[in-house]
From TrEMBL:
Annotated compartments: Cell membrane; Membrane
Any GO BP: calcium activated phospholipid scrambling
Cellular compartments per GO CC: plasma membrane
Tree of life domain: Eukaryota
Record membrane topology: Multi-pass membrane protein
Residues annotated as domain Anoctamin transmembrane: 207-722
Taxonomic path: Eukaryota, Metazoa, Chordata, Craniata, Vertebrata
Domain called Anoctamin dimerisation: residue spans: 11-204
GO molecular function: chloride channel activity; protein dimerization activity
Keywords tagged on the record: Cell membrane, Glycoprotein, Membrane, Transmembrane, Transmembrane helix
The protein's name in its UniProt record: Anoctamin
A Pfam cross-reference name: Anoctamin
Signal peptide annotation: none
Length: 752
C-alpha cells in the first residue's frame, strides 16, 4: 500500500501544523509495526511513502478483524443454471467463456494465531494471506491511527487526506511480472471490461478476488437486472397531424395489453428479487461472507477512535467502543428535520415548474403565431420536463453532500449501519425528487380544473389540464425525459469525465504530459508502479451506481403502465452500464481498498418497497389515468365504440358562452357541473379494479415468495458443514480435526 504526500499546502502556521501531523502519523505507524520506505520521484518532487506489514503484525490484526483463512480446498466446479439448461437442450452457449486463473474455493474459518498449523498453506508466509487481506489489515491500521487530539477527531488516514495533509492513500494495482501470462488485472480487462464482452458471463470470482466482495456483489446484482419487456368519426375540425400523433401514442401506450404488461412487470419485480436473494445467499457463502454482518463485522475505525466509552459485545464477549443511543437518537432526529426541509424545497420547485408550464402556455397562446399556438401545450410540457430534470440533478448533488455530513455526525458503529443510514436518507429525498413530478401528472394534473365558468386556480392562475391525448401520454413523455435523459447524462459523464479528469491530473503532475488516454490496464513506460497508480482517479464507491440503478428500477416498475418502452431503455442502459463501470474500475480508478459485504444491504429492502408500491401505482394508473376502463365500460353498455368521444365530453353551462355555439370539455358532468350517474358507475368500477388487481398480483407474488426459499437447501447444508469443520479445526484435538476433514470430503461437495 502507498500514500502520496505533497508540500503544496497553505503557508505559515497551517504548513507547520500539517508537517507536524504527518510526522506524528508516520511515527505512530512505525510504532504499530509497519515498515516504511520513502521515495521522492517526478518533476513535481512528490513524496511517496510505501507501507508494508511484517508477519507478526499481519497475524495480530488478522485475528483482530476476523480474517477468514482456508481449511480445505473445494474441488467441485461452479456451474450456472442457464449454462446447465442450454447444455441439456444441446444449444451452443454464446455467453460462456474460458477465463484463466479461476480463483480456488476453500472451506474457511476465522484466523487464530495459536492454530496456525491447522490452516491450509501456513508454510508459506508470503502467500498465506491474500493481497486483498493484506490491504484490509493495512487500511485498518491507517484508519484507526491518531495523529493529534482525539476530542477534535484528528484520527485516521481519511481525515488526513480530506485536510490535504496527504494527497492520497491507496493499494497498488497488480503489475505485469511474466510476459507469458496475464495477471488478474489484465485478465479482468481482457475478459470483462472490453465492449466485446457485452454478451459474456461476468467473471464474478475474479472480480471478487481482485476488488473484494462488495464490488463483486454489485456487479452480480447488476448482471441479474440485465438478464432477466372507431374513434375517428367523433372528432371534427382537428389538425390532421395532431390527430395522427395522438392516435399513435394512445395505441402505443394506452391499450388493453398495458394491463397484462403491468401484471407481468409487477410479477417480474417480485420474481427478480426472490431470484436475487437466492443468488446472494449462494455468493455470500461461496465468498465466506454469510455471517459477516452478524458476527464478523468490526466497528468502523473512525467510530473506534472517536467513541467516548467501551462496552462488552454480547455476541463475541470482546470490549468494543460504544456511543450512547440517546445521543445518536437526538442526532438522527436532527438529520430527519433536514430531510423534511429538503423535501419541502423539492415540492416548492415542483409548484414553480407547474406555474412555469401554465404561464408559458398563456404566453404562447397570446403570441398569435399559428405554429407555436398549435404546439403550445407540447412545448410547455417538454420544456417543463427538461427544466425539472435540471432541478432534480442539482438538488441531488446538494442533498447527497448534506447527507454525508449528517450520517458521519450520527456515529454509527459499523460500516454497514453507516451506509444503510446514509442510503436511506438519500433515497427518501431522491424518491420525492425524481418521482414527485410523474406522480403529480399521473394522479393530480387535470383532476382539480373545475368546469367552464368555475375554474379552480393556484396563486391566481388556472390549474393545469391534460392535453387532448390525456395525462397518460404526458406522463410517458415526462418519464422518458427524466429517465432516458438521466441515463444519457450519466453515461456521458461516466465515459467522458474520467478521461478528462485523468488527463488533467497527469497534466498537473508533469509539465509535458502525454496526450494518450489510458484505455489499457498497463502502466505508462518509465513510471514506477506508485507513480502510475497515482495518476489514476480516486474510486468514488458504489453509492451513485446503486442509486442510479434503483431509481431506474422504480421507473420501469412504478410507472410501467404509462410507458411500456421504459424496460427496453433500461435494458440498453444496463448493457452500457456494466461495461462503463468495469472499465472505470479496471483502467481508470486507483485500486480501492477491499470491503467485505454479506449482501447489497438496505438496497434490497428499498427494492422490495418499490416492487410493492409498483403494484398499487399501476393499479391506480390503469384505473384512473388511462382510458382503458372508460372504453371498456362504454363498449359494455352500448355494444360498440361509436360515440365514445362525445360520451367523455360534457357540455358547458348555457350562461358560459354568449353565442349559440356549444362548448364541450372533458369530464362526466351535467350542465350544472355536477357528476353524472355514469361518473359514479365508472368510479365504482375503477375502485373495484384497483382492489382486484392489487390482490391478484400480490397473492401471486406471495405464492412465488413461498415457493422459492431465500437460501437453497444445499447452501444451508454447506453452512452447517463449514461450522462443524471450523469447530473441529479450532479444537485442541488436531488428529480428530484431520480425520473429520478427510472423512467429510468424501461425503460432501460444495454445490452452487
Amino acid at each position: 500500500m502507498k500514500s502520496a504526500e505533497s508540500d503544496e499546502v497553505s503557508s505559515g502556521s497551517s504548513r507547520d501544523t500539517h508537517r507536524k501531523w504527518r510526522t506524528e502519523f508516520l511515527s505512530r505507524l512505525r510504532t504499530a509495526g509497519l515498515h516504511q520506505e520513502t521515495v521522492v520521484q517526478g518533476k513535481t518532487k512528490t513524496t511517496y511513502v510505501l507501507l508494508s506489514a511484517p508477519w507478526n503484525v499481519l497475524c495480530y490484526y488478522a485475528e483482530e478483524i476476523s480474517v477468514r483463512v482456508p481449511l480445505q480446498a473445494v474441488t467441485t466446479p461452479i456451474s450456472i443454471w442457464s449454462e446447465k439448461i442450454l447444455e441439456k437442450l444441446h444449444i451452443p452457449n454464446i455467453m460462456a467463456q474460458d477465463v484463466p486463473n479461476l480463483p480456488p474455493d476453500y472451506y474457511t474459518c476465522q484466523f487464530r494465531s495459536n492454530k496456525l498449523e491447522r490452516f491450509l498453506g501456513h508454510e508459506n508466509k508470503d502467500t498465506f494471506f491474500k493481497t486483498t487481506q493484506r490491504h484490509q489489515i493495512l487500511y485498518e491500521i491507517l484508519a484507526r491511527t491518531p495523529y493529534g487530539s482525539l476530542k477534535r477527531g484528528e484520527v485516521g488516514i481519511g481525515r488526513l487526506v480530506s485536510e490535504h495533509v496527504l494527497t492520497a492513500a491507496f493499494p497498488l494495482h497488480e503489475t505485469p511480472v511474466d510476459p507469458q501470462s496475464l495477471n488478474m488485472r489484465q485478465i479482468l480487462h481482457h475478459y470483462w471490461a472490453r465492449w466485446a464482452c457485452w454478451r459474456k458471463y461476468q467473471p464474478l470470482d475474479h472480480i471478487r478476488e481482485y476488488f473484494g466482495e462488495k464490488i463483486a456483489l454489485y456487479f452480480a446484482w447488476l448482471g441479474k437486472t440485465e438478464h432477466t419487456f372507431n374513434l375517428y368519426q367523433d372528432i371534427k375540425h382537428v389538425n390532421m397531424f395532431n390527430l395522427v400523433s395522438i392516435i399513435f401514442f394512445c395505441l402505443l401506450f394506452d391499450n388493453g395489453g398495458t394491463v397484462f404488461f403491468s401484471i407481468f412487470m409487477s410479477l417480474w419485480a417480485v420474481t427478480f428479487l426472490e431470484y436475487w436473494k437466492r443468488t446472494s445467499s449462494i455468493l455470500s457463502h461461496r465468498w465466506d461472507c454469510s455471517e459477516f454482518e452478524e458476527i464478523e463485522e468490526r466497528p468502523r475505525p473512525e467510530f473506534t477512535a472517536l467513541a467516548p466509552m467501551t462496552v462488552r459485545n454480547p455476541v463475541t464477549g470482546a470490549e468494543e467502543p460504544y456511543f450512547p443511543e440517546t445521543q445518536r437518537l437526538s442526532r438522527t432526529l436532527t438529520g430527519n428535520m433536514v430531510i423534511i426541509l429538503m423535501i419541502a424545497i423539492v415540492l416548492i420547485f415542483l409548484i414553480a415548474i407547474i406555474l412555469y408550464r401554465t404561464i408559458l402556455s398563456i404566453i404562447i397562446y397570446r403570441s398569435q403565431n399559428g405554429f407555436f399556438i398549435f404546439s403550445a401545450g407540447r412545448i410547455a410540457s417538454l420544456t417543463g420536463s427538461m427544466l425539472n430534470l435540471l432541478v432534480i440533478l442539482l438538488l441531488s448533488r446538494l442533498y447527497t453532500y448534506l447527507a454525508q455530513i449528517l450520517t458521519r455526525w450520527e456515529m454509527h458503529r459499523t460500516q454497514t449501519k453507516y451506509e444503510d443510514a446514509f442510503i436511506l436518507k438519500v433515497f427518501i429525498f431522491q424518491f420525492v425528487n425524481f418521482y414527485s413530478s410523474p406522480v403529480y401528472i399521473a394522479f393530480f394534473k387535470g383532476r382539480f380544473v373545475g368546469y367552464p365558468g368555475k375554474y379552480n386556480t393556484l396563486l391566481g392562475i388556472r390549474n393545469e389540464d391534460c392535453g387532448a391525448s390525456g395525462c397518460l401520454i404526458e406522463l410517458a413523455q415526462e418519464l422518458l425525459v427524466i429517465m432516458v435523459g438521466k441515463q444519457v447524462i450519466s453515461n456521458i459523464q461516466e465515459f467522458v469525465l474520467p478521461k478528462l479528469k485523468a488527463w488533467w491530473h497527469r497534466r498537473k503532475l508533469k509539465p509535458a504530459p502525454s496526450q494518450e488516454v489510458i484505455d489499457e490496464p498497463d502502466s505508462e513506460p518509465g513510471l514506477s508502479p506508485w507513480e502510475a497508480n497515482y495518476q489514476l482517479l480516486v474510486c468514488e464507491g458504489l453509492f451513485d451506481e446503486y442509486l442510479e440503478m434503483v431509481l431506474q428500477f422504480g421507473f420501469i416498475t412504478i410507472f410501467v403502465a404509462a410507458c411500456p418502452l421504459a424496460p427496453l431503455f433500461a435494458l440498453i442502459n444496463n448493457w452500457v452500464e456494466v461495461r462503463l463501470d468495469a472499465q472505470k474500475f479496471v483502467c481508470e480508478y486507483r485500486r480501492p481498498v477491499v470491503e467485505r459485504a454479506q449482501d447489497i444491504g438496505i438496497w434490497l429492502t428499498i427494492l422490495k418497497f418499490i416492487s410493492y408500491l409498483a403494484v398499487i401505482t399501476n393499479a391506480f394508473l390503469i384505473a384512473f389515468t388511462s382510458d382503458f376502463l372508460p372504453r371498456l365500460f362504454y363498449r359494455y353498455t352500448t355494444g360498440s365504440m361509436r360515440g365514445y368521444v362525445n360520451f367523455t365530453l360534457s357540455v358547458a353551462p348555457a350562461n358560459y358562452t354568449q353565442s349559440h355555439m356549444t362548448c364541450r370539455y372533458r369530464g362526466l358532468k351535467d350542465d350544472k357541473g355536477q357528476p353524472t350517474q355514469d361518473y359514479y358507475h365508472l368510479l365504482a368500477i375503477r375502485l373495484s379494479f384497483v382492489i382486484i388487481f392489487e390482490h391478484v398480483v400480490l397473492l401471486i407474488g406471495r405464492i412465488i415468495d413461498w415457493m422459492v426459499p431465500d437460501i437453497p437447501e444445499e447452501v444451508e447444508i454447506k453452512v452447517k458443514r463449514e461450522h462443524y469443520m471450523a469447530k473441529e479445526a479450532l479444537a485442541e484435538n488436531q488428529a480428530s480435526f484431520l480425520e473429520t476433514i478427510i472423512d467429510g470430503c468424501n461425503c460432501y461437495e460444495k454445490i452452487y
